[in-house]
Specification:
Number of strands: 4
Order of helices and strands: HHEHEHEHEH
Radius of gyration: 27 Å
Organism: Thorea hispida
Structural class: alpha/beta
Helix content: 25-40%
CATH superfamily of one domain: Ribosomal protein L4/L1
InterPro entries: Ribosomal_uL4, Ribosomal_uL4-like, Ribosomal_uL4_dom_sf
Strand order of the largest sheet: 1-4-2-3
Strand content: 5-15%
Number of helices: 6
Subunit structure: Part of the 50S ribosomal subunit.
Function: Probably binds the 23S rRNA.
CATH class of one domain: Alpha Beta
Subcellular location: Plastid, Chloroplast
Length: 191
């Protein structure tokens, strides 16, 4: 396999994984009743001939008020499956392609004593991270104070290392990974 074909294949897998994640976010719950599902309408409203009216077989016809919907929405079970190895490869490819924007930091950098946004903001300034970029912080486990401190900053996203996903990594311009988070990523995604 040539290098060009390998690049095409990995970008294809990243794309498939992204589409899979987007498809699984849909609710697909919109539903309307067809003429067979609307209550009533079992009897013919008038006889076929001799009334001068147009023939009718049910009062729940889509042509009638209170009738069923002809081509209304129905819940769609779209099975868009992706293999676990493909998903791992997609995340590995993304992390490899973004390696210039990844910084590994000690775990104690995000041990914030109080859930204050200002403390997190100062911590990021000490690490010389520009605050206008979209920042993804990957931690081994979510600390309550860190989560509460980051909620008010619109460009910061915190995610656990074992819940890594394509959309979060793709959207991030700068990725900060704690040391324990990196060990978890290596254990789960490089297997």
């Amino acid at each position: 396999m040539t290098l060009k074909n390998h690049r095409k294949q990995t970008t294809y897998i990243v794309h498939r994984s992204l589409i899979n994640q987007l498809k699984h976010q849909y609710q697909n719950t919109a539903s309307s009743k067809t003429r067979s599902e609307v209550r009533g309408g079992g009897r013919k409203p008038w006889k076929q001939k001799g009334t001068g009216k147009a023939r009718a077989g049910s009062i729940r016809s889509p042509l009638w008020r209170g009738g069923g919907v002809t081509f209304g929405p129905k819940p769609i079970q779209s099975l868009h499956k992706i293999n676990i190895k493909e998903k791992r490869l997609a995340l590995n490819t993304l992390l490899h392609n973004k390696n210039l924007s990844i910084s590994i930091i000690p775990d104690n950098n995000f041990n914030i004593d109080y859930p204050k946004t200002q403390l997190l903001y100062k911590q990021l300034q000490l690490m010389e991270v520009k605050n206008d970029n979209k920042i993804l912080i990957i931690v081994n486990q979510k600390y309550k104070n860190l989560y509460l401190a980051s909620r008010n900053l619109k460009n910061i996203d915190i995610i656990q290392a074992d819940h890594l996903n394509i959309i979060s990594v793709l959207n991030a311009e700068k990725i900060l990974i704690t040391e324990n988070g990196l060990l978890t990523i290596q254990k789960i995604y490089h297997a």
